[in-house]
Amino acid sequence: MAAPTKTPSCKIGPSILNADLSDLASECQRMMDSGADYLHLDVMDGQFVPNLTFGHPVVKCLRPKLPGVFFDMHMMVQKPEQWIEGMHDAGADQYTFHYEATEDPAGCIRKIRETGMKAGIGIKPNTPVDVLVPLVDLVDMVLIMTVEPGFGGQKFMQDMMPKVQFLRENFKSVDIEVDGGVSPATIQHCAEVIYGGCKYDSVWECCSEE
User: Pairing mode, if any, of strands 202-204 and 175-179?
Assistant: First the structure.
């Protein structure tokens, strides 16, 4: 696989999970004004994970208020295939689903790509990274959870970083996102583990713990 040709960079995509949902558009704009590269929108269905957040109607409302902002949808939902069209129509840019949530991950990726959205796939902490090997070349981004999905404010699981290192060593051009407990205290460690100070172009999600 060819090495990336664009300038290597790290990117920060704050989660809006802990934002004031009564003033969500302003909160999102504040994060972009503070230097965020994109927004990470956590969608929970109360089935794949215990909590419930929001769906595509909220995304549709945000889209015109945040033109040009990249929306990375983290779909913590069972049967993620059923929400692809709705999220695309609402203005999502990337649809990231969980390997554990579908019986046909390759088919799900294909449906995402048919809409024109970028495709991402993620795994929970207890899922071995090797399950992703046949799928990495089909997606734009791989998400490694560094907490259990579904709850904010958890402690960063450093023992997940070997998964990230394995992916970087074997798939040098794929974007990698780490999600959960990433803060000013842990983000530099993430960068150093993966590419020794931004050696490759990857995507990082820094969860707000405020």
Answer: unpaired
Tens of pLDDT, residue by residue over 122-142, are 999 999 999 999 999 999 999
Q: Classify residue 82 as exposed, middle or buried by CB count within 10 Å of its CB (0-12, 13-18, 19+).
A: exposed
Between CA 123 and CA 132 the distance in angstroms is: 8
The CATH number assigned to the domain holding 198 equals 3.20.20.70
Catalytic entry in 45, 72, 175, 179: 179
In a domain, residue 111? The reply is yes
Q: Given 23, 42, 140, 201, which residue is catalytic?
A: 42
pTM over 0.70: yes
- What secondary structure does DSSP assign to 40-95, as a single string? EEEEEBSSSSS-B---HHHHHHHGGGSTT--EEEEEE-SSGGGGHHHHHHHT-SEE
> pLDDT tens-digit profile of 153-169?
678 888 899 999 999 88
Residue 209 lies in a domain: no
User: Does a structural domain hold residue 1?
Assistant: no
179 assigned to active site: yes
Q: What angle do CA 115, 104, 38 make, to 5 degrees?
A: 45
Give the span between the Cα atoms of 174 and 172, in whole angstroms.
6
Q: Does 42 qualify as catalytic in the annotation?
A: yes
Burial class of residue 14 (count of CB atoms within 10 Å of its CB; 0-12, 13-18, 19+): buried
SS3 108: helix
